[in-house]
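re: that complex we talked abt at group meeting.

here r the seqs, copy pasted straight from the sheet so there may be weird spacing, ignore it
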Amino acid sequence: MSLANLLDEAGLTGRGGAAFATGIKVRAAHESGATLIVNACDGEVGAAKDGWVVAHHLPALIEGARLVTGGQPVRVAAKRGSRTLELLTRAGVDVLAIPNRYVSSEESALISLAQGGLARPLTKTVPFVRGQGRDGNDRPIPATVVLNAETVWRVAQIADRGPGWFRSQGTATEPGPRLVAIGGAVARPAVLEAAAGMPIRALLDHVGVATDAEYVGVGGLGGILLPRDTAGELLWSSTDLARFGGSVGPGVVTVHDPSECIVDTVDRLLTYAAGESAGQCGPCMFGLPAIATDWHALATGIEASTADSRLERRLAELPGRGACRFPDGIARFASSARTVLADHLTAHALGHCPTHPKERHVA
Amino acid sequence: MINELLWYLSRATGITSIALLTAVLLLGVVTSGRRRPVGERATILMGLHRWLSLGMVAFLGVHITTAIAETYVSIDWISALVPFTSAYSTAWVGLGTLAFDLVLAVVATSLLRQRIPERLWRRVHWGAYAMWPIALVHGLMLATSAEPILTAITIACGAVGAAGIAWRLSTGHADRDARRGALQGEWS
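got the structure back, here u go
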């Protein structure tokens, strides 16, 4: 059986967050003789699993890459200055050093950088794996496939242990083991070998959550915000998380710091996001600063009701309009924060903050 | 007699072409950039820009044909297309030819706009900003020198066009500024 068929049978999907069927990509890569870029950037805020795979399973990762390309060149992308990059370089792997920007680890941004361009997302008119893609200057790009580091490691595991072993973990719709990085206000931040369908409470218990923590993020900056109690009742699966607009995504769970007002935390994250636009698509370069400004108005309580209706309208208009899914992710995160923190925001509009009740809230 | 008529016709269509070219340039300037009009006004201004430019080409055609046909000065067909080949006033006629070649390029790419890459059309269209001053100098240095009124018209065209370009350059462009801002910092 061919590798692609084996992966189809196992039901492996991309572990970078998009959850695209890996078998389809590998089949296309074989047909076009594509080179491979392994994405070990841990580009999502709070992500750590790519680095964990490199640190603990580098030989299997390289073997998986070899299986995918069948001898075509492989490069492993990691963030500049990261320990992951250092480990890869020390092991003699051909590396691609990625600038420390949020969107620079997006798959087409990696391709752009590998072709000598800037690490900014490209418009995807045709899949780059087919070899008919073009960069921003209309120059052809040779066939390239980008796979997440955990995905490539899973390929090697499936080839070794078979699809049956893989499907014995996870759920029917999200089969297989998957890594999750849990960090933030926890006693022991860790990358756990988990699977979809595990109770989120079990994951949180494993790392020791700060007792007064109230909010949990699932999926990082492109994910969702949940009250800790709500999260504790859910399974870590896209079926459960979809009710709140989320998914297992890139395998990130963040416990937010209880000492910082959660509205201010979101404010900080949205301000960061606004500064990470690559300045290519209007909805992103204007939309993200606009929603960050709206949120800041909500946080300070100045003309909060007009800011809120503006934010609602903008969040509905943002998704699906960029070359990459960055604005979609930020809109998802801001929407979930707006819903979950409705009461908290109302308090801010009235001039006080539930997190710091004794201080008069001044932004 | 015929020769005299051709000479005056050539002068007249030349100065008309310069006036029309300046009008087309101004219409182009106000319909590009950040402060451009929207809605019906944009449609009207854009339509004027296109149709006046084709009208200008008609006057230009007569200007060139008559300049070649009349025999006071010797300009041949080749020097209508290849710059700096005219025996008469090589430099200044050459500038006119250069401007005409640019007109041909701009018109041709505009007629083919739906079939060629937008970038190519845009880059060639930028050539209009070179073509216009070249045509002005050509006009100023040749036929209008003996006619104060023609000189005055050409200089007036230059002043009005320059004011339009200055207006365009002075406008901030939120889109361009945001793109430049985003490129600050590490991207490679």
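couple things i noticed - Residues 315 and 335 of chain A are 7 Å apart (CA to CA). The longest helix of chain A spans residues 49-69.
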